[in-house]
């Protein structure tokens, strides 16, 4: 093994004063590369695998060895964790699901409308507005959270889901506007022109021509909104202080703070439950995720 | 063409002779966005600037206090600590993360078998990394009895409480950020695919070795994407919050060693309801991020290479 690596090195990273080339046969190099990459993948994913295994172990075994072989199955961790807080964990899952669903709908509707205007319409102030929109992509939420909190608390919206949902209905996730603009620009203009000649107005062109063609961009938006909203902690921590309204991240955090340091098993169990939807979204939507970050590049 | 112009050019459509404008339709389509800009984003940016010059606790009306908040910042030792912690975190974790991303992207490039599997395995942590669950897991990995120490124990090294030790607590968060190198890696992979293979073939014919090819072909042609990733990841790292909050139980401890800027802002604003000062802190963060982005764009003229 080490022998192989030593021989492979000069080929891939030879310095400028060229040493005599050692040709390592292609199959060997390939084996070394795959062994290395698999090992790295295992190291990368080991913490997560260990967490899943630990969630199925009795508490006194979790920190006994670093291995991931299960001797016994402690499924009770899951039922214990599920019922450890004031409400069953399903309550928080439902809260998160409501918020996520509403945010997805909000982003799909509002961002696609804005994107259509930026990509296809000609209007006064377009350059300025587009630059502003790009600028807001980079705007940290921490800069606007204080006035936003003051506004929402005066509206009586603290401890409701509205402060989390309403911004999405107003196209404030500029990243998705940008993603959709880029996508619409790639669609042939002849399609719009043809529809226009047939007498279609902009609402019609948008609904009947553009929207059906931008399904991949809408899918990317859906999956990213799902994962980011599901994981979002900062705004949910600030706006949801009533345990009844807790979403999964806030509930999980209160779990950690409230648990006496011994019920790790059930804590890991609920951590696994909280990551499961993200993992499923990743499995289902991988193609759109990869495409989405490859073409616009964020996160 | 400078990077800045490139960014600006994104906003223009190539409309040669003036076409008829459709203002009415456009503003209708943009109505939600305009509302959002006014009430949710740009409005609050202006409002927090104004609030930054007040003393406000949410109960009594805001009271203007001139430059009092700025004075307070100058002598606020916890703020200075938070700035130090955040800068260290950004400057160490972003280059490491991008180096890992670029290195892996190079290894995964060009027709490797099992590419899709490796890409998924390396990308998954970026999706999970910002969650509370992973932060909870990190606490257990780097705890005194945690996974890392058990592994070290197997090879005969005595570990320590990585998270309870102020000297190492921040490093565990840096490791967490490097762990999420998958997202920039996918962007690099897409960029590498744009480089025509014939450049490498031509260079190989001329006798250039792999390292020269990397330096003379890959790096220059990939520089716009490296720049893009650098700008985004720096902005992103400045805003890290969840991991430090969960790992330190909301305190930024031990001894403020994980007191991220945003965490300190949260404490002032939402634990102490010191909204005026928190607004001033928010604006300082905005200025810092803007300054870093501007410096990045300025420096880009010297090292980012645009093909066209």
TrEMBL record, chain A:
GO terms for biological process: transmembrane transport. It comes from the Bacteria. It is found in: Cell membrane. Residues 93-285 form the ABC transmembrane type-1 domain. One of its GO terms (cellular component) is plasma membrane. Keywords: Cell membrane, Membrane, Transmembrane, Transmembrane helix, Transport. It is a multi-pass membrane protein. The chain crosses the membrane at residues 37-56, 92-116, 128-152, 164-184, 205-230, 264-284. PROSITE patterns: ABC_TM1 (PS50928). InterPro entries: MetI-like, MetI-like_sf. Belongs to the binding-protein-dependent transport system permease family. This is Sugar ABC transporter permease. It comes from Actinoplanes auranticolor.
Automatic annotation (TrEMBL), chain B:
This is ABC transporter permease. PANTHER family: ABC TRANSPORTER PERMEASE PROTEIN, ABC TRANSPORTER PERMEASE PROTEIN YESP-RELATED. The chain crosses the membrane at residues 27-53, 82-108, 120-138, 169-192, 219-238, 278-299. Keywords: Cell membrane, Membrane, Transmembrane, Transmembrane helix, Transport. InterPro entries: ABC_transporter_permease (IPR051393), MetI-like (IPR000515), MetI-like_sf (IPR035906). Residues 83-296 form the ABC transmembrane type-1 domain. It is a multi-pass membrane protein. It comes from the Bacteria. Pfam families: BPD_transp_1. It is found in: Cell membrane. Belongs to the binding-protein-dependent transport system permease family.
